[in-house]
Amino acid sequence: DEVLPTDYVTTQQATQMGWSGKDQDSLWGVWALNKKMIGGDRFTGKVPYQAGRWYSADLESVRGIRSSKRLVYSTESASRYLTTGEYENFTKIVPCQ
Questions:
Q1: Which of 19, 22, 34, 86 is buried most deeply by CB count within 10 Å?
Q2: Helix, strand or coil for residue 88?
C-alpha cells in the first residue's frame, strides 16, 4: 500500500542508495536522497491499546538530519499516533472529519 508521499523512503531503500543508516548523518548527503525523509518502516514496538501492523514515518528533518518526531500509523485503521522521543510516549491524533 502506498500511503506516504513520494518524498519518503524506507531505511532499507536509503541505505541501498548510499546513506550510512546513522540518524546523525544527513540523508541529503546522498544526491538521490535530497529532500527525502525516512518513512514506511515496520514499527515493532508496542502501540497503546492497539493490535495490528504499525509503521513509522519521520515528521521533521532539518537538512536531512532526522528529528525525534515520528508518526506511528496503521494501514489497517484510521488510528495515528505522534511520538517525540524514543517511542516512550504516544499522543493519539484525532482524524479530521
A1: 19
A2: coil
Cell numbers for 22:
546513522
Strands (E), the chain: 8-9, 37-43, 54-58, 61-62, 65-66, 70-73, 80-83, 91-93
C-alpha cell at 45: 514496538
Q: Measure the CA–CA gap between 80 and 75, rounded to whole angstroms.
A: 10
Cell 531503500, residue located? 13
This prediction has a pTM of 0.87
What does the buried/exposed string (b/e) look like for 26-50 if buried means 16 or more CB atoms within 10 Å of the residue's CB? bbbebeebeebbbbbbebeeebeee
* Per-residue model confidence (pLDDT) at position 44: 85
Lookup: cell for 44? 515493532
